Known about the structure:
Blueprint: H1 2-31, H2 33-47, H3 52-57, H4 61-70, H5 89-99, H6 102-114, H7 121-127, E1 131-134, H8 138-147, E2 152-155, E3 160-163, H9 168-179, E4 181-184, E5 187-190, E6 193-196, E7 200-202, H10 204-219, H11 227-240, H12 242-250, H13 254-261, H14 267-286, H15 292-322
Parallel strand pairs: 1-3
Antiparallel strand pairs: 2-3, 4-5, 5-6, 6-7
Helix pairs in contact: 1-2, 1-8, 2-15, 7-9, 9-10, 10-11, 10-14, 11-15, 14-15
Amino acid sequence: MLAEWLDEICKFIVPNILTFIKPLIITFLSTSAIGGIAEGYVLNKKYNHDLKTAKVITSRPMVKIVKALENNEQSSYENLPPELISFDEETKKRIIERHLSDIIKEFVTTLEEKSDKLNLFFMYDNLRSLKIIKANDSFKNYVMKYLIGWNGVYFTGKNEIKLSVNSKATFFHELFHMATSFKRYGIDYCGFSQFNKEVGTIGTGINEGYTNLLVEHYFGLKNGTYENEVKIVRQIEDIIGRDTMERLYFKADLQGLIDEISKYISLENAFTLVQKTDYITYINNHHKWGFHPIKKIYLDKSITAITEIITDISNTKNQSKSKF
């Protein structure tokens, strides 16, 4: 009885305390010289980090798996590339019915109908054990949505979606993450992003932007997030083609995307394009309420660099077309 009473008190008091102190913290970061200088230092350091980090983590999991098979290494189901595996229709039906969710059925049905050239192995594989948690608790909802800034999140290792808003666009966004995620050789793959705890992350910006663009392509929905990233990936898609970009995304082949971009510019600039897009996402995620003029300087700097690279890609492609 006492525990329930304390729980109810916390649900009421804690969010209101946080509501009161959050503007004070934001105001300090936005107006104080100390806050501005500290943020400028962090943003500058992040902006100038070494490109070698990206080159270390980027890999092509399917190539590694095929080589393992050729060398007669473990050939279990988990080591087979999705091109060699498929689920029969009866198994697919059982997997979908497990969730008894109209929104998941809509997601799967739409992808099956509109993407006959894509391999959806990762989607069906993950759906077998997917957990969905809605933050109904007011305190958890407040922390997730307002303090952390997540409307929804997909945890690759846990195969778990957490939602803090009742939004189809957000749910579909996280389902796309689920449908393109797996773990191999100590690396978490999710669409165009890769994570290794020893090295770091690459491809987050392009992955988030393209995931939102796919929600728009397949379902005609927008959720108002990752707007700069969506503009960037829309231009990349226009250059390399939607079919190619979707195929690479569903195979979690970031290296394949970089290879496509590198047909028109140097490999170094292709990595720079990926990293500067990551940087835009980093600022929006980690410096959401910081010193605005400083944020704008670094955002503009990144966007300018990306615009120049995409212009070079487009010009090179047009020049190669004009030769034929």
